[in-house]
Amino acid sequence: MIVWRSWSRRKGVTSGVFYIGYSIIAATALRKCLKPNLRIEALRRGHPIIVIRQWENGKPGKFLKHFY
Fold it and tell me: Where are the domains of the chain?
């Protein structure tokens, strides 16, 4: 059985854990386990998943918000 589906069933989650959510949890756990020098490099590679910008005249304008 796929690990993330197995995890969601054991926790009693009826709707299931989506793969993206599971991968975010796994990535966070992995970053916490890294040695300090490797952790810094891994955190630098992280980037926002969603960036919201206001568009003006067909070009990206003012930055509004980002979500991780």
Answer: 3-67
Query: What would the pLDDT profile of 3-52 be if each residue is shown by its tens digit?
Result: 555 555 565 555 556 777 788 788 888 888 989 888 888 777 766 667 77
Q: Is the pTM here over 0.85, yes or no?
A: no
Pair of tokens at residue 12: 């009693």
Cβ-based neighbours of 4, under 8 Å, separated by 6 or more: 17, 19, 22
Residue 15 CA to residue 44 CA, distance in Å, equals 33
CB neighbour list of residue 54: distance below 8 Å, 6 or more residues apart:
61, 62, 64
User: Which residues partner with 66 through β-bridges?
Assistant: 51
Nearest to 49 by CA among 63, 65, 32: 65
**Residues with Cβ within 8 Å of residue 43, at least 6 apart in sequence:** 31
